[in-house]
Design brief:
The complex is a heterodimer of chains A (109) and B (114).
Chain A: E1 3-5, E2 9-13, E3 18-25, E4 32-37, E5 44-49, E6 53-57, E7 60-65, E8 70-75, E9 84-91, E10 97-99, E11 103-108
Parallel strand pairs in A: 2-11
Antiparallel strand pairs in A: 1-3, 3-8, 4-5, 4-9, 6-7, 7-8, 9-10, 9-11
Chain B: E1 5-7, E2 10-13, E3 19-24, E4 31-38, E5 42-50, E6 53-56, E7 65-71, E8 74-79, E9 88-95, E10 104-105, E11 109-113
Parallel strand pairs in B: 2-11
Antiparallel strand pairs in B: 1-3, 3-8, 4-5, 4-9, 5-6, 7-8, 9-10, 9-11
Classes of the chains: A mainly beta (109), B mainly beta (114).
Chain lengths: 109, 114
């Protein structure tokens, strides 16, 4: 079967750094994506890793290790507006995405 | 600013009625995805199209759901007859094949079946 595992909820403090992990087991792998979804909103694309290593976009970074079937999203200098759900997704062989169940990030002042 | 549009944004209907949801993908995108999101099930892929051809609809209950792309600017998702368990938010997303890692989501249709 195909599955992605990520924590259901993570709590952090404003201004801190938080890491959201994702492990995957899929029959095909073409890249790991991260999406953000605020309550009542639609998922929006954050980052994509096709190769091993770290990709940085402003306060957000995403990491991939294909040999470990593992990746993470790193959020720095947390702001209250970062409170949202974060989904990892693996691109399969037919251009569709296989989605994790999402991690709810709670940020406390 | 290119965006995926969906109509209606909200729909309340009674059990047994037909529901039609529409999506206009971003111009030039050749893949379209329909998702359903509930608190219990998360984000479920119902169907997807590439170059207007259906590639996978295995996640869709075939007895009551149907998805079509009559042209490149319109995708539809129909439920007939609707049931209370169909209550959810339905998202449409579009993208480019070969760039399948990035999907652009519409605002969703919030469906409530009474």
């Amino acid at each position: 079967g195909q599955s992605l595992e990520q924590p259901s909820e993570v709590t952090a403090v404003e201004g801190a750094i938080v890491q959201i992990n994702c492990t995957y087991q899929t029959s095909g792998f073409y890249g790991l994506s991260w999406y953000q979804q605020h309550d009542g909103g639609a998922p929006t694309f954050l980052s994509y890793n096709a190769l091993d290593g770290l990709e940085e976009t402003g306060r957000f970074s995403s990491f991939l290790s294909r040999s470990d079937s593992y990746g993470y999203l790193l959020l720095q200098e947390l702001q209250m507006k970062d409170s949202a759900s974060y989904f990892c997704a693996v691109r399969g062989s037919n251009y569709q995405l296989i989605w994790g169940a999402g991690t709810k990030l709670i940020i406390k002042p | 600013d290119a965006r995926v549009t969906q109509t209606p944004r909200d729909k309340v209907t009674e059990m047994g009625q037909e529901v039609t949801m529409r999506c206009q993908p971003i111009l030039g995108h050749n893949t379209v995805f329909w998702y359903r999101q509930t608190m219990m099930q998360g984000l479920e892929l119902l169907a997807y199209f590439r170059n207007r051809a259906p590639l996978d609809d295995s996640g869709m209950p075939k007895d009551r759901f149907s998805a079509e792309m009559p042209d490149a600017t319109l995708a539809t998702l129909k439920i007939q007859p609707s049931e209370p368990r169909d209550s959810a938010v339905y998202f449409c997303a579009s993208g480019l094949s070969g760039g399948g890692e990035t999907q652009y989501f519409g605002p969703g249709t919030r469906l409530l079946v009474l």
